[in-house]
Each structure stands twice: as structure tokens, then as C-alpha cells.
Amino acid sequence: MKPDLPIYALLDELTSIARRAGQAVMTVYADECEVRSKADASPVTQADELAESLIASALTSLSPDVPLVAEEAFASGKTPAVGERFWLVDPLDGTRDFIQHNGEFTVNIALIEDGIPVLGVVYAPAIDRLFAGAAGHGATVEDAKGKRRIRCRTAPPEGLTVLTSRWHGDLALLRTFLQSQKVAQIHFCGSSLKLCLLAEGRGDLYPRFGRTMEWDTAAGHAVLSAAGGRLTDMNGDDFRYGKPGFENPDFIASGR
């Protein structure tokens, strides 16, 4: 990676890598695939591994001096030392959505600098929607309607649209958390698409209780930040990346 190259100049390259990884995922999606369990009991498929191999190879060619932390490599015990700058990759976020064939799974690539996600691409290959964002450069979505800029919305007077996971979390705890808020609807959605829907102005709040990993949120966080949103811990402190074990605390993602 050239030191004088502006961060946003990498977006086209990352978009291409994410699309190629998405194509690899879709070759497996079209057929029945073997589902295995990792040590933490989460599922993994051939699609996760194919996409990660492709992304890792491409990023190593693009920036051989930048460490890469990827979900499946981490699960197999391969964890590089990271410094101020490193890649965070989730080759298939929403594996349960992939297995259920509901289309709500994504390829996620993020660049971290000084603990902050400054660049991110989130690609949902089954619905062919690609979100991208760079610090100081804004966020975009590209789909059948073309490529356009996106921005978080101000919460409407009729109440918040709250996003939550289809597979994880405690709905009773969520409703307790929302008691002081005016809520218009709760929308269930898979993978990092929830963060991207906030960035696109199609939601207002995404509280997450329970275990997530840094690669689950980094790319979507970059898109959300570039679109004017925010992701914090429950104390309101900005999220940081590169923590020991790469495990996230509970968090709140929000639009404007």
C-alpha cells in the first residue's frame, strides 16, 4: 500500500475484491453445502473458506505490509500481531442466513487505523447490493438502480425504526431497553446489513446485546460512520478495534 495514496482511493480495489468473493460465495449458495461447527459452535461452510482465501490473497497482493485478521483464520488459531493499521475481514457474515437461503448475508472488508475503521466495503451478493464508505469521503450504495451517495436520516417524528438480529439477542431485553424511546417498528435483519440500513437512512437504532467479534462490525461501522452515524459501547464511548481477542462489548449503532 503506497503511503501517499489517499484511503478512499482503495475503494475501487476493495469493491472488486468483495464482488469476486461474493461470486465465490454464490457458487456454493446455488447448491447444497456441508455445514460444520467451529469450536464456538458457530456454523461454517465451504463458502466462508473460499471467500476468505480469495480476499486474503488479494489483500496480501495489494498491501503485503499490512496484517490481516480474518474470521476463519482466527478460528483455526492463526492470529497475526497487529499494529496501528490492519485489515479486518469477515468473508461471510450471516452464515445462518446463508444456510437458510434468505439472502441476508454479506462479504465484509475493513481497514483499521489507530483503532478506527476508516474504510469499509459490505457486499450482499444474493441481492447484489454493495455498500462502501471511507472516513472523510462519504458512503455509497450500488445496486440495480446504480451507484449513489447515502446518508443517515434524522429519526422521524412518528418514532424510531429499530433494527435487530433475526438469530441473536434477547427480544425481552431489547424491549426493556427501548421503554423510554418512541418506537414505530422493530425490523429483523441478518448480518452487517443492519449497520448499512442505518447508513442508508432506512433505520434509526440498532442496539446489540451479546457476543460479536470485531470482523462482524468493522466494515459496516466504517460505512455507517462515513454516512454520518455512530457506533458506541453502552457508555457512549466510541468503539475501538484491535482489542485482545477481537471480541466486542455490547453496543449501540445509530443514525443521526
CATH superfamily of the largest domain: Fructose-1,6-Bisphosphatase, subunit A, domain 1
CATH class of the largest domain: Alpha Beta
Helix/strand-derived category reads alpha+beta
Radius of gyration: 17 Å
- Could you report the average pLDDT, rounded to the nearest whole number? 91
Taking pLDDT < 50 over at least 5 consecutive residues as the criterion, the unreliable ranges are none
CATH A-level architecture of the largest domain? 2-Layer Sandwich
β-sheet strand percentage: 25-35%
Give the strand order of the largest sheet, numbering strands 1, 2, ... along the chain. 3-4-5-6-7-8-9
Largest sheet: 7 strands, mixed
Judging from the principal axes of the Cα atoms, what is the shape?
Answer: globular
Number of strands: 16
As a percent range, the share of helical residues equals 25-40%
DSSP helix count? 7
| CATH topology description of the largest domain | Fructose-1,6-Bisphosphatase, Chain A, domain 1
How many domains comprise the coordinates? 2
Distance between the termini: 33 Å
Order of helices and strands: HEEHEHEHEEEEEEHEHEEHEEE
Description:
The mean pLDDT is 91. Helix 1 packs antiparallel against helix 2 and helix 6 runs parallel beside helix 7. The strands form 5 sheets. Strands 3-4-5-6-7-8-9 form a 7-stranded mixed β-sheet, sandwiched between helices. Strands 12-16-14 form a 3-stranded antiparallel β-sheet, with helices on one face. Strands 1-2 form a two-stranded antiparallel ribbon. The chain starts with 10 loop residues before the first helix and ends with a strand. Helix content is 29%, strand content 32%. A hairpin with a 2-residue loop joins strand 5 and strand 6. It has 256 residues and is α+β, with helices and mostly antiparallel strands.
